Amino acid sequence: MPIDTSRRELLQSAAAGLGFLGFASFAPGAGIPPGVVSFRHIHLDFHTSPAITGVGEHFHAEEFARVLKEASVNSITIFAKCHHGMSYYPTKVGVRHPNLKADLVGGMIEACHRQGIRVPVYISTMYDQHIWRKHAEWRALDAEGKSYGHRGGAGPLTPNLGLVCVNTPYLDYILAQAGEVLQNYEADGLFYDNYNHPPAGCHGPSCMEDREKLGLDSTRAEDRRKHAYIVMKRAMDRFAATVRARKPKASVYINGPFRLGQDPQFLRQVASDYTHLEIESLPGGSWGYGHFQMTSRYLRNFGLEAQGMTGAFHRSWGDFGTVRNQAALDYECFSMLAQATRCAIGDHLHPDGRLNPRTYERIARTYRSVAEKEPWCDGAAAVTEVAFLYPPAAARGNDSAMGVNRMLTQLRQQFDVLDRESGFSRYKALILADDYRLDEALRDKLAAYVEAGGGLILSHEAGLDPAGRGFALPGMGLDYEGPWKHESQYIEALEPLREGVPDMVHEMYETGSAVKAQPGTTELARVWAGYFDKDYRHFQVEQTPYQKPTGYAAAAQRGRIVYFAVPIFRAYARHGYPVYRQLVANALRRLLPDPLVRAELPTTAQVTMTTQRGRHILHVLHYIPERRSPDLDIVEDVIPLRDVALAARLPRRPAKVYLAPQRQDLSCDYREGYARVTVPVVNGHQMVVFEG
Fold first, then answer.
1. How far is the C-alpha of 439 from the C-alpha of 464, rounded, in Å?
2. E strands of 559-651, at which residues?
3. Smallest Cα–Cα separation from 371: which of 334, 335, 400?
4. How confident is the model over 519-555, as pLDDT tens digits?
């Protein structure tokens, strides 16, 4: 059903009044307003079906703001339009929820501002169920003409939350809504959500016609992908300019494109459309606990303030009737501080308009502790010396990336996550895991890095040419023969890698490559073969036992390059055999003998280093996620650690060492470049401050 004439005229008028037609000439990113990212933020969802009655009937603005204030919240994203397409204020552009009893947007903003709480406003973009149903010609379609999006079950009549394409008049509709909110309310920014233009390309009529105009071929995947980025950039520039034209000091965040696995060149093009980054990473949802570790280590390096985001519920969005364990909420927010990011907790308002008091009792405990710790976190930056290159197009991490992340975290290495466009020179060691093949540009960049003294750890196919025929990187000192052809690839650590490794032959569980060391290359581990490969004539339960060594290298070193012939990172992620981690630790020690941090701690403890205004801070975290359901890790208990020995590599003897926020002084022994302390107790999270 087309938009009626009066609404179309209003939409066009609003768009013209905000200068939408002139946005192409706007230069986004000209100065980021200060103070747009809080340490104690709430992201409040309110996706409310039009079938729900009594919406907001128990909302009281002053009570709403008081609950937030008492929970130490100082910023909250509220909702103007949800993914049902419903608006929660008196709109002349959009569709007011049919059962709305109050102006929720206006009431929330005014009451929160009276309490000194910042209020950016949420607008759903490509999810708008109302528009999706009314305007089939605006739907984002796949190559078969089917709608992209989320189906609520099997069968033809199940609920469908389909994507609406922004390469249609729908974009003007979104921007007119945004302009209306900014014009009518003192919003402190906009949060544009659900911006997920299909990377494989939209096959709706507008996109098909647009590609023809641009000389792109809709039958070619590469052209469709190129067009998807063009469409995304166009709309994102306009999203940002809408805010900046109306409220130059307001915040802008567009949720969806800025993530791990996204094209790195595209991210650098659109970074100026953002005032900050928000890392949606709910461990109770599909993200898991490893996602934030990797994503924060990547996104914090784009020159924008970053904010983590967990959830106040047991699982994920829409999980009404649950509350997150206190220890889990603490751990997730304190992890954000430890990664030099700020904190956000996702919540969802009940349709009646009342915040759940039990939820905000727990948020209060966490955020009061965050408030005490802010003086040592405000303006802090991570201190790192190791990095790994994230695999392309792996949005939430593949097994190899997860293996690297777990190993380095458990080894207390201070590391970042990079993409191929990142600068490498400030890192002492880089890791390319398992399947990261090299084109000419990356080959030359890595070769220059090694030539300048950088250390490199590669495994399995990492370092091969794109076709997988041989090593692309010069100076490896290895001959590549192809994939390992047998079902088992046992390894034996030789003397250079033997420290802490049981003196025996070890099963790899995952097979890798067949590689031989050239003269002058140091063999660090060798491959053993099994008695036979199993078939109908040769049977053995589990893997066939090892029999004898082969002439193949399992690990080798030439200069500053260490290579593992086995997919050791993927194997660690899948099987968790500690020997794999120890082998990598020994290899790292050969490249990095004096790490930034040394600690006598169980592998369940995490240590990160940040720096801030002439001081260094060690964050020690000890919370233990336990798999208590088939797909969910649970944190419920805090297990204290006592008499924790830590050593931080610092350029000089610190003038003062103390615990924060307690301000309890610690004695410090400074020798051989390390400041050594003993922390009496770590009760979940402890900061150790080295000043001067």
1. 9
2. 561-564, 597-600, 606-612, 615-621, 626-629, 632-634, 641-649
3. 334
4. 999 999 999 998 887 776 776 667 788 889 999 999 9
Burial (0-12, 13-18, 19+ Cβ within 10 Å), 81: buried
Q: Rounded distance, CA 419 to CA 301, Å? A: 11
Give the residue among 413, 453, 334 at the shortest CA–CA distance from 589.
Answer: 413
Distance CA 419, CA 388 (A): 8
Tokens standing for 599? 């600690």
Distance CA 526, CA 68 (A): 60
DSSP output for 314-346: SSSTT-TT----HHHHHHHHHHHHHTT-B-EEE
Return the structure tokens found at 371. 């408030």
181-203: pLDDT as tens digits? 999 999 999 999 999 899 899 99
The distance of Cα 229 from the centroid of its chain, to the nearest Å, equals 20
- Please answer whether residues 270 and 257 qualify as being in contact, where contact means their C-beta atoms are separated by less than 8 angstroms: yes
Q: How far is Cα 301 from Cα 426, in angstroms, rounded to an integer?
A: 13
Would you say 572 and 402 are in contact if contact means Cβ atoms under 8 Å apart?
no
Q: At what angle do helices 399-410 and 288-299 cross, to 10 degrees?
A: 80
- Copy the structure tokens of residue 642: 């006592």
Closest residue by Cα to residue 453 from 429, 477, 431? 429
**Domains, the chain, with CATH or none:** 5-381 (3.20.20.80), 384-591 (3.40.50.880), 597-691 (2.60.40.1180)
- HSE of 547, CA atoms in CB hemisphere, 13 A: 9
- Distance CA(369)–CA(621), nearest Å, equals 14
Residues of the chain above pLDDT 70, percent: 92
Cα angle for residues 20, 187, 339 (degrees, 5° grid): 100
pLDDT of 225 reads 95
| Mean pLDDT for the stretch of residues 100-117 | 97
Query: CB–CB of 454/431 below 8 Å?
Result: no
Tokens for 67?
């609950």
